[in-house]
Design brief:
Layout lengths: L21 H13 L2 E9 L2 E3 L5 E4 L22 H13 L2 E9 L2 E8 L4
Length: 119
């Protein structure tokens, strides 16, 4: 197992899956399960992801392609990659709203559209 360097004042400890709230961990696990595809209508309440009745998972399939297993799925705790951390930080800043569509590639968030209240 690869070890990260120790934290210093100029370089904080990398964020790990185990550091996340349960809602955030569930979202990361969905990223891994989806691998290639997306999430539609992901609600954001108090900066946390919420899977609601209208939330949908979209999967992209390639004919003749073989699904790949995300290596992180067999690990309970691991260092999060930058796109995951960036997306979770965005949700925290957003506070309330909806992610209309989130594209996921290689188990990582790539781009997304938001819906927020005016004002």
């Amino acid at each position: 197992m690869k070890r990260e360097p120790p934290a210093t004042a100029s370089r904080p400890r990398p964020l790990r899956k185990g550091d996340l709230t349960e809602a955030q961990q569930q979202l990361v696990e969905q990223f891994q399960r989806i691998d290639f595809g997306g999430i539609r209508n992901l609600h954001v309440v108090d900066g946390q992801p919420v899977f609601a009745a209208d939330t949908r998972i979209v999967r992209h399939r390639v004919l003749g392609g073989r699904p790949t297993a995300r290596p992180e799925r067999s690990t309970r705790d691991f260092v999060l990659k930058a796109p995951v951390v960036d997306f979770l930080e965005y949700l925290a800043r957003m506070k309330q709203g909806k992610i209309m569509h989130l594209d996921i590639r290689h188990g990582l968030p790539l781009q997304f559209e938001t819906e927020e209240a005016v004002g």
